[in-house]
Every structure is written in C-alpha cells, then in structure tokens.
Amino acid sequence: MLDHISIGVRDISRTKNFYDAALKPLGYICLSAGDSSLGYGKAQVQLWVNASAKPIKPEMDSGLHVCFAAPTRKSVDAFHKSALASGGSDNGKPGLRADYGENYYAAFVIDPDGYRIEAYCSLAG
C-alpha cells in the first residue's frame, strides 16, 4: 500500500547517526544523503528523513509509530541494542507480543526526535 513515509527532524546529522545504527541490523541502509534529507531502504528509499524547523511534536498517546520488517528475531534484538546505544530510548524490550499474534516478536524504541519506531519479525523461533 505505501511507497514511502517522510518524517521531519531538527538535526539531520544526529538523526543519520541514529538511523544508520538502528536500521543496519535490519538490512536497511542510507541510500540517499544530503544536507537536508536522508533516504533509507534496501533497493529503494522507503523512509525519507528531512530537516525541518518545525517537526511534529512527540505525542506518546497519538498511536503514531513506524514499524520496520526484521528478517530474524536476532536482528530485532540487535536493532534495539543499536538504537539505544545511538541515542534512542527504550519503549519496549525485544520479545514476543502474544496479544498481537503467536509469533509477533518485536522491540520498540523512541528516536532522538521523539518518533516511536518498532522492529518486528513474524518467524517462529
């Protein structure tokens, strides 16, 4: 359904450091980098990050978050660890979420600008 999503951030350099580290374990890389924008994905950009003087203010109760597909449960674990080491904050440690499905293995973090992000793997074990 979606081709890509864009988010606005205040500090593009800080954001690049964070997303380079957080998304690497999931197999996503920065495919496009400029002074005011970054594009992440595998074969094509699916997440655009743009410098903005007025990014959306973090709102924990909004329900807004971005979920990244993870190839393995170990990559979900690595995503969480790398995101925290790169300036993110914990919003849900890696583990099974039985309420979402039998094999719903996910981790949740908040990026340096307050966006809630998730890595998710549906494979058993």
Structural class by sheet pairing and helices: alpha/beta
What is the highest CATH level, the class? Alpha Beta
Number of domains: 1
Largest sheet: 4 strands, mixed
CATH domain topology: 2,3-Dihydroxybiphenyl 1,2-Dioxygenase, domain 1
The helix content is 10-25%
The named CATH superfamily: 2,3-Dihydroxybiphenyl 1,2-Dioxygenase, domain 1
Identify the CATH architecture: Roll
What would you call the shape? globular
Strand order of the largest sheet: 1-4-3-2
Q: Would you list the SSEs in sequence order as H and E?
A: EHEEEEHEEE
Rg: 14 Å
What is the CA-CA span between the terminal residues?
28 Å
Contiguous uncertain segments of 5+ residues: none
Number of helices, counting only DSSP H or I runs of 4 residues or more? 2
**Average pLDDT for all residues:** 95
Question: What does the model show?
Answer:
With 125 residues, the chain is of the alpha/beta class. The chain has a single domain, classed as 2,3-Dihydroxybiphenyl 1,2-Dioxygenase, domain 1. Helices cover 20% and strands 37% of the residues. It has helices spanning 12-23, 73-85, and strands spanning 5-9, 29-33, 37-41, 45-51, 66-69, 89-96, 105-110, 116-121. Strands 1-4-3-2 form a four-stranded mixed beta sheet, with helices on one face. The radius of gyration is 14 Å and the shape is globular. The model has no long low-confidence stretch (mean pLDDT 95).
Short précis:
The chain is of the alpha/beta class and about 120 residues long. About 20% of the residues lie in helices and about 35% in strands. The protein contains two helices and eight strands; from the N terminus they run E-H-E-E-E-E-H-E-E-E.
